[in-house]
């Protein structure tokens, strides 16, 4: 009898915990999203180009950096998501409310410059992917720009977003390609564990671009806004935290394999990346002669998705900070600044790419350098906010998080200053 | 002191002198008492330097001369600058924050604040939400004025009179503000809903908790579906269930259908049994059918009742039903046998049984009827509502014109994603 009771109790307990687990999984799935979406959007045109160039130019020797950047990406994204969950406000709102008009103006200027550059990179990605299919950029860029603008303004772009996300998932192909290229795994491991660094401007700029493409200013605004939009509050936050951490891991899992596969193919063969077609070669072990098509489909999805989301989120951030009417449900005359900003970002991004003689790969890489140089400004704002007890209460940053975030800030500023000095006075190097 | 009015931005940072004209520090903030509809300036916060601050009573200010505040007394008490209950600090608690302009019915951000003399007091009279305020803050008042002259820019001043400003609850302020929301609550639910949509979750939740369930339900029905779910998820379950009870069953079912199954079940359990039952029934129907669109709140009577009895019954029930213009007539098995309008009922002789004045050829739809069919019928016959019957001919609900209207006006309406059966 006693035994029977225990068995019954056990069964009941088991059933109970199964129920609890089911419930938790359900909550997790309903919250899941901001982190993963941000992660996928992170591997946009600029990201793909930068990682591919890193692998092709430096082989596996910068892989150690990806490991460190992943930690710092996860921590920085988590900070933004946490601020959204605790305050229910976007990053630009918080900057305005805590630092006033002048600092907000400065922060928004930084965001705008970084995002105009990124937007140009997205259109460069669109142009590059279409060129592989033989469509010249003078046709593809204006056409897609108008199409994306229309889709977003008409408000029916949710489905398109999912479609493009699906495209962007093609980049998981790099994981397979990374294995099939049969890289020397001991070399890869050494690249991961042994830090190498070169004191030369080109290398430093590539370093800045790699950080700048992984941890971008706009992503910080985006992830916080998405958390707020989803109505995630601190009581459900632990699920969101998982989502953010998984997202950061996923982003860099892909970047890692882009570097490995370009390292194993292009670096080994001594092919520098000049065009998107070169970058596509790294997929050859997986897709053979179709690799360029696979690459361009993915690049198109990633670029088009970001080219739609980025101007939109920028316009929201700026308008919320200054209290201007925003939202695509409005008519143009109801929210003129919102629509002007959104339109201007797309237009400028597209025009930069259309200028004759622009190298598409260069636009993609340069924009990430700009992002890397400007990132510390946004990170400092975030750090000040996330450490304010008045705003965050008990959810202020832990010392470890502060340390990692500050190291990121100091490294970026240090690198930027060093790069600046070295480029101005190249003579310093010869000594 | 300020006969022509002055902006807060022009006062912050101004020198503060003691009675001997010695400089004590500079203006850090200005405290006002919220008791009046135009808050009275009651405190001056002085930044002494070295991170020290002092608070002086507004009465201790002798004058504002040559751009400086002159104090009556030599002594200032150093201490943490916390305003008293019912008081707030303008720069810390209002400047740069969001407020509701109940006149323009929108959420705006405060760029500057205007103070002016009223009798021998200084009062907060308006919030500046326009571009000139922004420029003044960004460049300083002189530079902004010079720029405006130079370029001949005519930037429209936009000041909101303080008596139409509603503050929002904010936990960011050191002491939690006690906000009445009175001005906000006087607006039409549809206007309030539009304002609510522009707010942050925390403020949305605070407002819903402050409202009584009936008004909250009225307002929630006006809010966009996506925002509805977010709000409902963040409300305390008890409050959420109360609000759902007050909503029209079809709207409540729509909303619950959008929520996660577990959450929806929890809320249904907390609801009043009768209300929950009605909502559960509606949840069983497929979203794109008459069953999914209909409400179960309708008026049905037996045919044997006289016109007078029916009117008395209506008075007794004082029905909450969405529409009372159509009265349906059913038999013992609740089969729909006729319909009459409120007008027919009122003009009929009091002793006539309603079965004699009702129309027996009732135009109705089945629970599985698609929305297009319902819209067509409502449009063709100029109905305000159409009755819905199940396979046995029993009257189970009505679809009102506004539900069909919603469907036509908002084409890709993201309704009930995950219907549970």
Task: Tell me the strand percentage band of chain B.
Answer: 15-25%
Helix content of chain B: 25-40%
Rg of chain B (C-alpha, Å): 30 Å
Which regions of chain B are unreliable across 5 or more consecutive residues at pLDDT < 50?
411-421
What's the shape of chain B?
Answer: elongated
Mean pLDDT of chain B comes to 82
How many β-strands of chain A, per DSSP? 0
Low-confidence stretches of chain A: none
Question: What is the terminal separation of chain A in angstroms?
Answer: 88 Å
Evaluate the radius of gyration of chain A. Answer: 23 Å
Walkthrough of the structure:
The complex is a heterodimer of chains A (431) and B (421). Chain A has 431 residues and is mostly helical. Chain A has helices spanning 2-31, 34-42, 45-58, 63-87, 91-132, 137-154, 158-168, 173-180, 185-193, 201-214, 217-229, 237-269, 276-280, 284-287, 291-322, 336-354, 360-386, 389-392, 399-424, 427-430. Helix content of chain A is 81%, strand content 0%. Chain A starts with a helix and ends with a helix. The model of chain A has no long low-confidence stretch (mean pLDDT 86). With 421 residues, chain B is of the alpha+beta class. Chain B contains 19 helices and 21 strands. Chain B has helices spanning 8-11, 90-94, 131-139, 141-151, 182-185, 189-197, 201-210, 213-220, 225-234, 237-246, 249-258, 261-270, 273-283, 290-293, 307-317, 342-347, 354-357, 371-381, 401-409; strands spanning 6-7, 15-17, 23-33, 40-49, 52-57, 61-65, 68-71, 77-78, 87-89, 98-101, 106-109, 112-118, 121-128, 159-161, 165-166, 300-302, 326-330, 336-341, 365-366, 385-389, 395-400. In chain B, the strands form five sheets. In chain B, strands 2, 3, 4, 5, 6, 7, 8 and 9 form an eight-stranded mixed sheet that branches. Chain B has a four-stranded antiparallel sheet with strand order 1-12-13-14. In chain B, a hairpin with a 5-residue loop joins β17 and β18 (336-341). The model of chain B is unreliable at 411-421 (pLDDT under 50). Chains A and B meet through α1 and α5 of A and β11, α3, α7 and α9 of B.
């Amino acid at each position: 009898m006693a035994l029977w009771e225990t068995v019954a109790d056990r069964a009941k307990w088991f059933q109970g915990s199964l129920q609890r687990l089911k419930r938790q999984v359900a909550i997790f799935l309903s919250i899941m999203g901001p982190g993963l979406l941000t992660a996928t959007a992170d591997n946009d045109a600029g990201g793909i180009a930068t990682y591919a160039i890193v692998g092709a130019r430096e082989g596996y020797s910068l892989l150690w950096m990806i490991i460190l950047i992943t930690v710092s990406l996860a921590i920085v994204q988590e900070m933004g998501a946490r601020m959204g969950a605790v305050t229910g406000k976007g990053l630009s709102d918080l900057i305005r409310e805590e630092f006033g008009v002048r600092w907000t103006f400065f922060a928004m200027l930084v965001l705008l410059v970084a995002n105009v550059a990124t937007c140009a990179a997205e259109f460069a990605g669109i142009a590059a992917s279409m060129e592989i299919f033989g469509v010249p950029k003078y046709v593809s860029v204006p056409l897609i720009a108008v199409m994306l603008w229309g889709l977003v303004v008409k408000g029916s772009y949710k489905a398109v977003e999912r479609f493009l996300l699906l495209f962007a998932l093609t980049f998981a192909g790099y994981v397979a390609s990374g294995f099939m290229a049969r890289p020397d795994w001991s070399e890869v491991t050494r690249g991961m564990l042994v830090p190498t660094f070169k004191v030369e401007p080109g290398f430093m700029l590539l370093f800045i671009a790699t950080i700048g493409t992984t941890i971008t200013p706009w992503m910080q605004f985006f992830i916080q806004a998405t958390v707020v939009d989803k109505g995630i509050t601190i009581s459900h936050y632990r699920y969101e935290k998982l989502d953010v951490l998984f997202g950061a891991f996923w982003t860099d899992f892909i970047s890692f394999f882009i570097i490995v596969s370009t390292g194993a193919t292009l670096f080994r063969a001594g092919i520098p990346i000049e065009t998107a077609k070169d970058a596509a070669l790294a997929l050859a072990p997986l897709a053979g002669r179709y690799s360029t098509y696979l690459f361009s489909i993915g690049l198109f999805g990633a670029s088009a998705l970001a080219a739609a989301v980025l101007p939109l989120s920028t316009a929201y951030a700026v308008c919320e900070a200054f209290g201007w009417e925003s939202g695509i449900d409005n008519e143009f005359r109801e929210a003129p600044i919102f629509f002007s900003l959104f339109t201007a970002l797309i237009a400028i991004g597209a025009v930069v790419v259309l200028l004759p003689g622009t190298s598409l790969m260069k636009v993609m890489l340069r924009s990430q350098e700009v992002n890397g140089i400007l990132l510390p400004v946004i990170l400092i704002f975030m750090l000040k906010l996330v450490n304010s007890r008045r705003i965050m209460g008990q959810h202020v940053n832990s010392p470890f998080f502060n340390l990692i975030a500050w190291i990121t800030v100091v490294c970026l500023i240090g690198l930027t200053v060093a790069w600046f000095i070295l480029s101005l006075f190249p003579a310093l190097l010869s000594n | 002191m300020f006969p022509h009015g002055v902006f807060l931005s022009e006062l912050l940072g101004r020198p503060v002198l003691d009675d001997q004209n010695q400089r004590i520090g500079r203006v850090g903030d200005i405290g006002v008492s919220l008791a009046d509809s135009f808050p009275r300036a009651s405190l001056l916060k002085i930044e002494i330097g070295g991170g020290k601050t002092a608070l002086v009573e507004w009465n201790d200010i002798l004058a504002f001369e040559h751009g400086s505040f002159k104090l009556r007394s030599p002594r200032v008490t150093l201490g943490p600058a916390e305003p008293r209950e019912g008081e707030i600090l303008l720069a810390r608690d209002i400047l740069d924050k969001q407020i509701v302009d109940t006149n323009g019915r929108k959420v705006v951000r405060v760029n500057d604040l205007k103070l002016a003399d009223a009798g021998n007091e200084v009062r907060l009279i308006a919030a500046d939400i326009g571009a000139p305020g922004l420029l003044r803050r960004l460049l300083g008042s002189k530079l902004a004025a010079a720029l405006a002259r130079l370029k001949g820019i005519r930037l429209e001043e936009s000041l909101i009179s303080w008596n139409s400003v509603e503050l929002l609850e904010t936990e960011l302020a050191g002491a939690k503000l006690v906000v009445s929301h009175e001005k906000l609550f006087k607006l039409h639910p549809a206007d309030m809903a539009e304002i609510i949509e522009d707010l942050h979750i925390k403020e949305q939740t605070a407002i819903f908790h402050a409202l009584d369930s009936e008004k909250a339900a009225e307002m929630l029905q006006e809010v966009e579906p996506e925002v509805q779910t977010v709000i409902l998820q963040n409300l305390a379950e008890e409050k959420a269930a109360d609000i759902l009870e007050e909503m029209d069953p079809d709207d409540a079912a729509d909303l619950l259908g959008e929520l996660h199954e577990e959450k929806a079940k929890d809320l249904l359990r907390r609801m009043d049994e009768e209300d929950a039952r009605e909502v559960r029934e509606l949840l069983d129907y497929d979203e794109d059918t008459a069953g999914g669109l209909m409400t179960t709140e309708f008026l049905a009577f037996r045919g044997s009742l006289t016109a007078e009895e029916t009117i008395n019954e209506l008075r007794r029930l004082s029905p909450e039903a969405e529409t009372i213009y159509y009265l349906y007539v059913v038999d013992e098995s609740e089969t729909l046998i006729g319909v009459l309008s409120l007008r027919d009922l009122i003009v009929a002789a009091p002793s006539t049984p309603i079965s004699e004045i009702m129309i027996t050829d009732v135009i109705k739809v089945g629970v599985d009827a698609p929305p297009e069919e319902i819209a067509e019928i409502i449009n063709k016959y100029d109905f305000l509502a159409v009755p819905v019957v199940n396979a046995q001919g029993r009257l189970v609900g009505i679809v009102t014109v506004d539900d069909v209207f919603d469907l036509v006006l908002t084409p890709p309406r993201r309704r009930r994603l995950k219907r549970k059966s």
